[in-house]
Each structure stands twice: as structure tokens, then as C-alpha cells.
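Students often ask why inverse folding is considered easier than folding. One informal answer: many sequences map to the same fold, so there is more than one right answer. In these notes we will look at a single instance of the problem. The structure comes first.
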């Protein structure tokens, strides 16, 4: 007897999934960030060299990487990828930016040590005396842009101006003198100005660099790699095209060999792909070619999880069991095998993530994430759908499960 309520529940679940995938996939896909190998951009590998005899350690690398990220953001870069590579390397990946490559490299590597020096050359103030975000952009009486400075300790700045009254106090950025005004009166407000031939953009850039602070270490460029936007787009296009072909072949194979369970596996695989994209968006992760490789590998594992289950079910049907009994025995016998395979792969991916460099780590993270999603969708969800169909008593014949009636009872 056909149980229409169970089959209707199956249709409702599949319909909800189809609606969710069909209406939101475009937005989810557009929110996923692409790495420079897919979008185009450039990558810089820096060697970190300590200042004043300090040793390069993890704390110094982290501090330098944080400062580098602030510098890159000045150039209008959308979420740069700055990673540490032991023992003394920092890798910067920039997929898109308003500034040119040369401008960004100049911003990143600039020491940006701000000093105020009296007429004898002695440093009387430096950048560390600035208030938090104390540098800004202002305009003089002729509406010409200038850089404004606000000091954390106004009394200290007032004392400097008092000692150097009617004398010059030069302002240096690194070893370049920006201006050398004469102190006409004691300045008690804790404010100063840097004048020069600035545009609004250049004044803002200098203010941003001063606010970001000086680099705690010296950076030496070891390698610069550029990826053209057209090359990145071509790689993405070919990857998507290959994915379409692979997905079509999988769909056809599952339908021909496993029939009804194969159709359910294809539904679960569509859900798996969608939820992987959703998790990528939620993780705010950057998708690269190695990451896509990890995703494709997980698709193979997802299909394999269903194949193991369906093969077990076919074996049980051939032994003469009913469809429901075959399903129960097959899913039980295949579960440990599937979980063992997924866990061992996750262990290998964890090792890659711990010991690998940035691109290998990206591959490992995507692989681990997709394995977890695969267990949920292609183990539990596909079995739930198949259970609904079997309990509806609509597909009782072995034909629907890829088994010939002549094969039943031979094992």
C-alpha cells in the first residue's frame, strides 16, 4: 500500500531545498571572495629583518604582519591575505586594489618613522608621541591640503616649543625632511601641522601611514609574483567549465547505475555544493585554485559515500531481503566504512594545514570544511531521503535500485 503522506513529505523536503538553492545561489556565489590566482593581482614575499639587534620571533612576525595589513588597507585593498611563514617570512596576497602595484609596494615597505628634530639634529618628539589616530587632513587659509597632528601629551609638545622658541624644529619622515618651521610662539594645544605640496589624496595617505605607526622590523622583498586579471578569469572559467562536465557525468552515472538511490544522491550532491558555498561565505574565506581542488576532491568523496551505501543495499537485495530490510542493513554496514574514510582524510588535511604554507593551508581548510558538510548531506541527508521514499512503498521493485531480479538469491 502506497503511503502518500511519506512521499508528500519527501517532495516537500526536496522542494524546499530546490527553492533555497534556486533563489539564493547567485547571491551566495557573488559574495565569495576570489584569490589572486582567480581574480588577478600580485603576491609579495618579504624577509623580516630585526631592528636594533632584536631576534626574529613569532611575536615580532605577528606585529609586523599586523602593521603590514594596516599599510595595505591604506591602498584601498579589499581584505588582503597576509600570512606568516616561519622562520622569518611574511607573504602578502593582494587580489584587487585602488592603488597600483608600485604604490602599494612603496606603502608597505616604507619605515614611516616620524621625528621632530631641533637645530642640533636631536630628536625631541617622534611618532609614538602622537595620539591614537592623531594624524589627519586639514586645509590652510588658501584651501591647500596639509597634514594635521595631535599629540597624546600636549604638555610635552608645549615644552618642546618653549625650549625651541624662535628656533627651527624640522619634521622628518624617515630621513626625508618634510618641513622645518620656526617656532613663533609656545603651542599649548598639542597640535601641529605638516605643510607642503600635498593633494588631498597624498595628504590622506601620509596621515594614514603615520596613524598606522612605524614598522617594528625591516622588510626586504624576496619575490614578487603578478597574475593578470585575464589569466585569473581564464583559470576560473576553465575550472567552472570542468566542474560542469564532471557534475554532468556524475549525475548520469548515478542515475544509470543506481537509479532511484542515484537520483537521491544527485539531490544530496546539489545540497552539498550549495551548503559548501554557504559555509565559505560564512567563513569569509578566500577561494583559490588549491581550494577548488580540495572542493573537487571532496565531491568525489561525497559521491563515494553514497556509492558505498548503495552497493551495500544492492548486496542485501541480491541476498533476498526486502527493500526496507536491505536499506537498514546496507546503511548500517556502510556507515563505519564511510566515517573511517572521512576521518583519515581529515587527519591528513589537518597535518597539511599545520605544516603547509599558505596555498597548502587553503587547500586543507577547504577540504576539512567540505568533508564535514559531506557527512551531513551525503550520509545523513541522503539516507533520510531514501528512507522516506522506501517507506512510501512506491518503488518496491529491485529494478529501481539497480538490481536485476535474476540476480536475487545468487549470493
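Output (designed amino acids):
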Amino acid at each position: 500500500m502506497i503511503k502518500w503522506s511519506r512521499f508528500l513529505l519527501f517532495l516537500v523536503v526536496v522542494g524546499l531545498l530546490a527553492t533555497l538553492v534556486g533563489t539564493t545561489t547567485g547571491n551566495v556565489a557573488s559574495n565569495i571572495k576570489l584569490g589572486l590566482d582567480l581574480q588577478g593581482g600580485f603576491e609579495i614575499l618579504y624577509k623580516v629583518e630585526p631592528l636594533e639587534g632584536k631576534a626574529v620571533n613569532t611575536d615580532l612576525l605577528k606585529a609586523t604582519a599586523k602593521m603590514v595589513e594596516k599599510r595595505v588597507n591604506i591602498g584601498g585593498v579589499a581584505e588582503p591575505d597576509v600570512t606568516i611563514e616561519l622562520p622569518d617570512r611574511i607573504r602578502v596576497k593582494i587580489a584587487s586594489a585602488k592603488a597600483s602595484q608600485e604604490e602599494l609596494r612603496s606603502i608597505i615597505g616604507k619605515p614611516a618613522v616620524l621625528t621632530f628634530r631641533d637645530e642640533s639634529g636631536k630628536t625631541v618628539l617622534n611618532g609614538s608621541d602622537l595620539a591614537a589616530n592623531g594624524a589627519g587632513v586639514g586645509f590652510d587659509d588658501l584651501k591647500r591640503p596639509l597634514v594635521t597632528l595631535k599629540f597624546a601629551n600636549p604638555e610635552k609638545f608645549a615644552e618642546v616649543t618653549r625650549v625651541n622658541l624662535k628656533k627651527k624644529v624640522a619634521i622628518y619622515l624617515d630621513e626625508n625632511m618634510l618641513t622645518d618651521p620656526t617656532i613663533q610662539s609656545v603651542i599649548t594645544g598639542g597640535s601641529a601641522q605638516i605643510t607642503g605640496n600635498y593633494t588631498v589624496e597624498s595628504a590622506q595617505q601620509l596621515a594614514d601611514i603615520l596613524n598606522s605607526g612605524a614598522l617594528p622590523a625591516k622588510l626586504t622583498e624576496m619575490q614578487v609574483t603578478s597574475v593578470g586579471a585575464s589569466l585569473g578569469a581564464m583559470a576560473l572559467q576553465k575550472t567552472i567549465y570542468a566542474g560542469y562536465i564532471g557534475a554532468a557525468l556524475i549525475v548520469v552515472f548515478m542515475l544509470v547505475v543506481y537509479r532511484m538511490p542515484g537520483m537521491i544522491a544527485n539531490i544530496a550532491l546539489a545540497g552539498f555544493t550549495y551548503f559548501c558555498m554557504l559555509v565559505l561565505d560564512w567563513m569569509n574565506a578566500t577561494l583559490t585554485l588549491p581550494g577548488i581542488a580540495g572542493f573537487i576532491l571532496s565531491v568525489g568523496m561525497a559521491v563515494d559515500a553514497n556509492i558505498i551505501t548503495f552497493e551495500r543495499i544492492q548486496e542485501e537485495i541480491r541476498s533476498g531481503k526486502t527493500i526496507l530490510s536491505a536499506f537498514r542493513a546496507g546503511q548500517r554496514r556502510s556507515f563505519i566504512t564511510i566515517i573511517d574514510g572521512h576521518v583519515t582524510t581529515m587527519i591528513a588535511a589537518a597535518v597539511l594545514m599545520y605544516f603547509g604554507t599558505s596555498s597548502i593551508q587553503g587547500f586543507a581548510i577547504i577540504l576539512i570544511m567540505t568533508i564535514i558538510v559531506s557527512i551531513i548531506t551525503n550520509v545523513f541527508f541522503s539516507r533520510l531521503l531514501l528512507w522516506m521514499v522506501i517507506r512510501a512503498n512506491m518503488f518496491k521493485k529491485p529494478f529501481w535500485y539497480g538490481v536485476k531480479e535474476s540476480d536475487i538469491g545468487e549470493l
